[in-house]
Automatic annotation (TrEMBL):
Belongs to the D-glutamate cyclase family. It holds the Pfam family D-Glu_cyclase. GO terms for biological process: glutamate metabolic process. This is DUF1445 domain protein.
Length: 282
């Protein structure tokens, strides 16, 4: 039996299979070379509003793929997930359940909650560029320490769309030496489909972003800083969950998302970055 962290170096399909068997936890560093995705699943009557939210906020919510109504087995575009036995309800390591904009619980599958009215959206994840950082000697600290990346709520507003009003952006944070920040920016800049380069960095960024306490992340785990390190912040795909919370009881029925840090591994690779378009909801 595989251990929770053993899928490193395996293919996207192998990691998804292990996720289905509940053998995967934090996906940082898993399936090198494959793009990872955040997830949001909601009733179809809200799908157009959410799709437009992604288009209006492409840095925080870069759209990688989506399903047709009620179909958990096929992601558009078809190159996103290619095996026939794929199941959106089981192949993400862990899911969060929301009702009336409030978090209810976490589950390892959605099999008994899914209906034929749901539409799923896959949103780019910053874990996707961490292999490139590691290859250039800039391995993220949470991978070194075996912890989960720190994530924070900010004061950066989302551009509204339909029922999604008043939400703010989430950022992920990785400590780096101040002298390495420009290299970090250069490495991550091409990854526009997975948030791209940092949105801010340095200790002054805390005030600009509205982060009160770097020691207390809203999601993930606290990271230690060496004397010469500064926080570096990227837009984060947990942002849609804040949009759900902001919408509150304007959304009827259950909404599902990934558990932060527990991503869906896609079949997209780094080579696909330049060719990725923006899938449209019809």
């Amino acid at each position: 039996m595989a251990s929770p962290r053993s899928p490193q170096g395996q293919s996207a399909h192998q990691v998804r299979s292990l996720s289905r068997q509940n053998h995967v936890t934090n996906t940082a560093g898993l399936a090198p070379g494959y793009l990872q995705a955040n997830l949001l699943i909601l009733p179809s009557r809200y799908a157009e509003d959410f799709h437009n939210l992604c288009l209006r906020n492409p840095v925080s919510c870069p759209l990688l793929g989506l399903t047709s109504k009620g179909n958990p087995h096929t992601i558009y575009p078809s190159t996103c997930i290619q095996e026939k036995d794929f199941d959106l309800r089981t192949d993400c390591p862990k899911y969060r359940i929301y009702k009336d904009g409030k978090y209810l619980e976490s589950r390892t599958d959605l099999l008994n909650l899914w209906t034929d009215d749901y539409v799923g959206f896959l949103i780019g994840c910053s874990f996707s560029f961490e292999d490139a950082l590691s290859e250039t000697g800039l391995k993220p600290k949470h991978q070194i320490t075996g912890t989960m990346v720190s994530m924070y709520k900010t004061c950066i507003p989302l551009l509204a769309s339909g029922i999604f009003k008043g939400g703010t952006c989430i950022v992920s944070m990785r400590p780096y030496r101040a002298e390495d920040v420009e290299r970090v920016r250069d490495v991550t800049r091409p990854y526009l489909a997975t948030h791209g380069e940092p949105v801010d960095w340095g200790w002054d960024a805390l005030e600009r972003l509205g982060i009160r306490d770097i020691e207390s992340p809203d999601f993930g785990e606290r990271q230690d800083f060496e004397e010469d390190e500064v926080p570096v912040f990227w837009a984060c795909g947990v942002t849609p969950q804040m949009a759900i919370e902001s919408a509150g009881d304007r959304i009827e029925g259950l909404v599902f998302a990934h558990e932060p840090g527990h991503m869906l591994i896609t079949d997209f690779t780094v080579k696909d970055l330049e060719s990725l378009g923006k899938p449209r909801y019809n």
